[in-house]
Backbone:
C-alpha cells in the first residue's frame, strides 16, 4: 500500500492508495511520459476535456467493437447496425467535449461514418475468420512486476494475435508507431501467453486514417522476442518504481503541447502541487 502524500489539495490529502493494485500499458506510458501529468490525472483526478479527434476515435472504436462482437456472437453485423453503433457512441460521450461550434461536430460525425465504412470495405473488415475474442480483458501476474498487469485487447485473432485499432489524422510512419506502441503490444502478448499458455504468432496495429478518403493500414509485427519482452518488463518496472516512490515531477517536452494541465504545472515548485 502506498502512503498518502503530505501535500494539501483543496484542504484534503490526496492519496496514492490503489494506484498499483494493477498496472496497464496506459499507466506505464502516462507515467513515463510525464510523472506530474500522471499525478494530476490519476491521483488528483482532474478532469480533462475530450478533444474532437479523441471523441471521434472513441466512437469509431465503439463501432468496430460492435461489428466484431456481433460477428463473434453470430448476430447481425450489417453496415447499418455498425453505423448506428457509431452514431450512438458519438452522441453519448462520457466526458465534456471541446467543439468550437456545431458545424465542426457535424463534420466530425460525417468523417467518422466514412472511416467506419472504409474499414468495413477493407480487407481487414472483410476477414472471414472469426476472432478468438473481442474487447478481451486480461489480468495476470507477470514475472518481475510487483503488480498484476491489466489489459483490454481490441481483438484477438487466430494465432493469438492481439490487434489494436488506432485512428490518426495522416498516414502514419508504421515503424515509428510500432516503436511507440511497443509497451502496449508486448504487454498484450505477455498477457495472452500467460493466460493461455500458448504462443502468440504476431502483433497487429490497424490504422484508420482520417484523410479525405479514409485509408486502412494494417501493420503486422512479429511476436516479441525474449529480449524484447524483458525490455518491456523493465520499462514497466521503472514506471512502477516511480509511482511507488511517489516521484511526480514535470517532464517538459513536445507532449506539453496537448497537455490540459499546463497552468497547474507552471505553478509546480517541487513542493506542494
Ligand atoms: S505541461 Fe508538460 S511537464 Fe507539465 S504536466 Fe503537462 S506534460 Fe507534464
Residues:
Amino acid at each position: 500500500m502506498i502512503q498518502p502524500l503530505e501535500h494539501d489539495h483543496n484542504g484534503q490529502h490526496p492519496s496514492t492508495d490503489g494506484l498499483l493494485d494493477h498496472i496497464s500499458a496506459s499507466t506505464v506510458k502516462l507515467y513515463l511520459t510525464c510523472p506530474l501529468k500522471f499525478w494530476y490525472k490519476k491521483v488528483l483526478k482532474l478532469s480533462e476535456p475530450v478533444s474532437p479527434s479523441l471523441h471521434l476515435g472513441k466512437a469509431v472504436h465503439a463501432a468496430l467493437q460492435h461489428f466484431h462482437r456481433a460477428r463473434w456472437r453470430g448476430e447481425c453485423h450489417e453496415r447499418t447496425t455498425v453505423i448506428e453503433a457509431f452514431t450512438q457512441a458519438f452522441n453519448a460521450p462520457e466526458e465534456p467535449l471541446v467543439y468550437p461550434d456545431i458545424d465542426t461536430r457535424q463534420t466530425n460525425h460525417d468523417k467518422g461514418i466514412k472511416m467506419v465504412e472504409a474499414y468495413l470495405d477493407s480487407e481487414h473488415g472483410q476477414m472471414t475468420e472469426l476472432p478468438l475474442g473481442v474487447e478481451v480483458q486480461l489480468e495476470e501476474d507477470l514475472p518481475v512486476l510487483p503488480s498484476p498487469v491489466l489489459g483490454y485487447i481490441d481483438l484477438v485473432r487466430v494465432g493469438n494475435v492481439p490487434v489494436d485499432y488506432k485512428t490518426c489524422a495522416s498516414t502514419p510512419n508504421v515503424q515509428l508507431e510500432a516503436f511507440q506502441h511497443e509497451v502496449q503490444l508486448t504487454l498484450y502478448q505477455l498477457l495472452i501467453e500467460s493466460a493461455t499458455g500458448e504462443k502468440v504468432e504476431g502483433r497487429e496495429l490497424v490504422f484508420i486514417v482520417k484523410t479525405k478518403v479514409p485509408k486502412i493500414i494494417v501493420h503486422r509485427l512479429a511476436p516479441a522476442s525474449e529480449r524484447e519482452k524483458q525490455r518491456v518488463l523493465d520499462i514497466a518496472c521503472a514506471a512502477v518504481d516511480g509511482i511507488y516512490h511517489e516521484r511526480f515531477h514535470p517532464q517538459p517536452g513536445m507532449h506539453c503541447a496537448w497537455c490540459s494541465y499546463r497552468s497547474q504545472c507552471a505553478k509546480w515548485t517541487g513542493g506542494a502541487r
